[in-house]
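Hello,

I think I submitted the s-citryldethia Coenzyme A job twice by accident. Can you confirm which output corresponds to this input? Input:
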Amino acid sequence: MADSAKLSVGGKEFDYSVRSGSVGPDVIDIRKLYAQTGAFTFDPGFTSTASCESAITYIDGDEGILLHRGYPIDQLAEQSSFMEVSYLLLNGELPDKATLDKFTTTITRHTMLHEQMATFYRGFRRDAHPMAIMCGVVGALSAFYHDSTDITDPHQRMVASHRLIAKMPTIAAMSYQYSVGRPFLYPRNSLSYTGNFLRMTFGNPAEEYEVNPVVEKAMDKIFILHADHEQNASTSTVRLAGSSGANPFACIAAGIACLWGPAHGGANEAALEMLREIGTVDRIPEYIARAKNKDDPFRLMGFGHRVYKNFDPRATVMKKTADEVLKELGVTDPIFDVARELEQIALNDPYFIDKKLYPNVDFYSGVILSAIGFPTTMFTVLFALARTVGWVAQWNEMISDPEQKIGRPRQLYTGPVQRDYVPVGKR
Ligand code: SDX
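Support: Only one job matched these inputs. Its output is below.
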């Protein structure tokens, strides 16, 4: 693309510089547009807007490519670990063994939660949705870890980042234990990040919990697949909250709230509920018809994506992992058959082909999580647990960006023009 773009507004011509990244679409720098033309751009949903410059994650939606600091997601999922990917996202390079061990030890030593925070859970009903608990407890972290809330101090920013990555599994596990009426388990430093999470979640104080290595590996892979994803809705929420100078715990709580929506991270819970509602392969055509019916708000949950207009590379890995885990655990789940048949039918249906709707990361994840033993209400909690490293990496990048300003979009106003107040007796 040329290095400048011309725009004609009100008969006048304006030039705007065009910038190229290391890969992907160029951007037209329109920061001077309003000052020069008196007009705003209009882009609800930000379908054509780059909100920032970033070096963390790159997605090519047409080619089904997802890179974390340049490394393809399928290679990371098959060969790396969530701790190593966390280090990579935060620091930009793969660590050597000594550095990885040091980072893992640092995270491990932050997994304990302030003892008083356990009382927060008692304030929730036992049947509270775990995402409601996560929003509350993570937001409250700033009340207990006030010594890592000065965002101008790089050391405090990194301590807060480590604390968030480390404490999310503990908070998530406590949310589940509370919902089933079991006592909380303290972290065990001798276990891996993911093994520790599984024990805190499914263990009980009356007996030793044996971490199943197959489940541990699958869970760790699922965390990798959810770690970061460019400027998605919840990451953009974290960046916007952070742009005002809010403390990191408050920003991540905002990201959790946004992720909860069924159009975003809540889709994994909604997708499994949908598969259960369909129930059997013979009922799939009825739901495909509903998804295509403009007058029916029903959508195929786990299908479609703002960026991927080809396959979601994470869904490919997730489907393979689902197959492996179900076989290893000897679980035969009819909804996995429904999922595979639904995918085949949808991928050969002109509606889905024309609208470039493919299974996304949320379509198969629920099958694995259900086989492992998680209730559907925990699915988005697990998404939030994993995405926390992406959120804090993007938050750190934003805070360190010399060009960052408080985010403050404008609008196209279509309300009443100025008019005088009319006293109630004269209306
Ligand atoms: C995540 O952004 C990210 O990176 C998110 C994420 C991440 O890692 O952070 O990848 C995680 O959120 C994955 C997406 C999970 N959501 C779902 O699975 C919910 C179901 N999907 C849809 O709600 C939808 O596909 C979105 C929200 C994911 C994307 O919506 P867009 O890009 O705004 O697309 P759209 O709603 O404008 O849809 C385009 C067309 C529409 O038809 P027309 O109005 O053009 O006639 O496709 C249709 C939609 O009606 N469509 C669907 C559909 N998704 C879109 N029709 C049926 N079923 C669907 N799932």
